[in-house]
Amino acid sequence: MQYRPHRSAALAALVALVAAPLAAQQAEPLPEDEAPGASDPAMVAAEAALANAPVFDGHNDVPIQLRARFDNQINDFDFADTSDTGETHAAGRAMHTDLARLERGRVGAQYWSVYVPASLDEPEAVQMTIEQIDVTKRLIDRYPQALQFATTADEVETAMAEGRVASLLGMEGGHSIGSSLAVLRQMYALGARYMTLTHGRNTPWADSATDDPEHGGLTEFGRDVVREMNRIGMLVDLSHVSEEAMHDALDVARAPVIFSHSGVRAVNGHARNVPDSVLERLPGNGGIVMVVALPGFLNEERRHWYALREAEQARLASLHQGQPSMVEAAMAEWDAANPEPATTIAHMADHIDHIREKIGVEYIGIGADFDGMPTGPVGFEDVGGYPALFAELARRGYSEVEMEMIASRNALRVLREAEQYAGQVMGSDPIETLLPSED
Predict the structure, then answer these.
(1) What one-character DSSP code corresponds to residue 11?
(2) Hey, which bits of 234-344 come out as E strands?
(3) Residue 155 catalytic?
(4) Which end of the chain is less crowded, N or C, counting CB atoms within 10 A of the terminal residue's CB?
(5) Are 214 and 187 in contact (CB under 8 A)?
(6) What DSSP line would sit under 372-438, residue for residue?
(7) Are strands 147-149 and 107-113 parallel, antiparallel or unpaired?
(8) Of residues 47, 57, 59, 350, which has the active-site annotation?
(9) How many other C-beta atoms lie within 10 A of the C-beta of residue 369?
(10) What count of Cα atoms within 13 Å lies in the side-chain half-sphere of residue 312?
């Protein structure tokens, strides 16, 4: 059985939701004379939209920061304010996320990424994923006034209405299930509500966008992974996967897919971004592209600059083998002569514009990737910057209704439709596959 909502009515239904805001008892907007940018009509419109529909972000990497910086020892960790955490990072970078900035950014729901490196052997990846689920749940439990663990669309709306950040879990990379549908089901039982099919490397059953093709997309087991995710109600995340794997997943998916943190390839040609061939299929599936804030995926000029820099570094390393100080000095000169092109909020809005023009506003969300990148664009360097992004959209003519859809209504719809499909097939048997041979 295939769940197919009436797509032609989707936009009208979402517009009607404006009359019934997500959170009848949400925190009131700041008084007009105290609100940031109160004299800027675009910021006023953005704040109004985010008061009705707080941001539901698709991807934040705080959990791996807890591991890398603090070895998951968080009993004394202060998540209220992380601005002084630069000393815990090799490059001196403070974390992008804390409770104060989540509030300032009007974030109402967050998928926390329980990422583990794709270089791990599968059994080790499974263990580490469980450890990352554990540390994330412990962080949520430590701040019950600000955060609320959530697994359903209804729970997200309830948390928002009570002024807490609905906190969901997303697994980043299919290596986290050890090529086992049994592990997949148990990860769902632990609370994981999406899984990115790959990360930066291929899995034994799916090709990554940034690895040499191995399977031509998804293997038959990979298709079964998608089918089983649909059956249990776990969202299929197609960020990081190859174009062929995206198409294979859409061929078998019976519930909406997501791109938890991606741009569009028509604006920036990075392999991590969504090509138009895939974008054009989203209306038929009902899925969503949650637009990323990572500068290298947004700004085409910056992408080319980085490629030139990598080439220069390789050239110098070849010329000055065994002389790293000479390479370092020469690269410092190159950097001084070739500064990195600035990436701004406008670049991020360009990706949103392309999706809107190509397939409609119903298929757009935000998945910034904070704490999984060095910085966001100028003006949107951390989780406090979402209102500035939406003010840019207001300047480009987006209505408050459209901004509400992008902020969280589309993400809620997708989660709810995945739940509805799972409810319709609840009586179907789990997919069974043979265990791998021990020979």
Answers:
(1) H
(2) 235-237, 258-262, 288-291
(3) no
(4) C
(5) no
(6) SSS--SBT-SSGGGHHHHHHHHHHTT--HHHHHIIIIIHHHHHHHHHHHHHHHTTTSPPP--PPPP-
(7) unpaired
(8) 59
(9) 23
(10) 17
Q: What is the pLDDT of residue 433?
A: 83
Residue 369 is among the residues annotated as catalytic for this protein: yes
Q: Which of 122, 369, 402, 419 is catalytic?
A: 369
Residue 261 appears among annotated catalytic residues? yes
From 18-32, 129-143, 264-278, the region with the lowest mean pLDDT: 18-32
Of 47, 57, 61, 157, which one is the catalytic site residue? 61
pLDDT in tens, 300-310: 999 999 999 99
Contact partners, residue 188, CB within 8 Å, separation at least 6? 232, 233, 234
Hey, is 110 helix, strand or coil? strand
Examine the residue annotation and report whether 96 is marked as an active-site residue of this protein: no
Instruction: State the residue for tokens 């910056």.
Output: 302
Element (DSSP H or E) covering residue 122 = helix 122-142
Question: Which residue of the set 172, 207, 248, 362 is catalytic?
Answer: 172
Check residue 16 and give its pLDDT: 39
Choose the catalytic residue: 96, 261, 270, 354.
261
Cα dihedral 246, 247, 252, 254 in deg (nearest 10): 70
How many whole angstroms separate alpha carbon 181 and alpha carbon 185?
6
Contact 344, 377 (CB under 8 A): yes
Helix (H, G, I), strand (E, B) or coil at 364: strand
* Residue bearing tokens 């061929």: 251
Question: Which listed residue (199, 215, 351, 354) is catalytic?
Answer: 199
Tens digits of residue pLDDT in 83-108: 999 999 999 999 999 999 999 999 99
pLDDT tens for residues 307-336?
999 999 999 999 999 999 999 999 999 999
Residue 115 phi, psi dihedral angles, 5° rounding: -70, 145
Return the bridge partners of 171, or none: 195
**Is 240 among the residues known to form the active site?**
yes
Cα–Cα distance list, 208 to 113, 184, 213, 411 (Å): 18, 19, 7, 24
Whether 207 contacts 217, CB under 8 Å: yes
Judge contact between 116 and 136, C-beta under 8 A. Answer: no
| Helix 181-190, helix 220-232: angle, nearest 10 | 30
CA dist 109 to 46, 54, 58, Å? 17, 8, 9
- For 26-48, letters b (16+ CB in 10 Å) and e give beeeeeeeebeeeeeebbbbbbb
Q: For residue 348, give the amino acid letter.
A: M
- Reading the block at residue 389, the tokens are 């992004």
CB 388 within 8 A of CB 379: yes
Q: Which whole-number Å values give the CA distances from 324 to 264, 309, 313, 328, 337, in the listed order?
A: 37, 16, 11, 6, 20
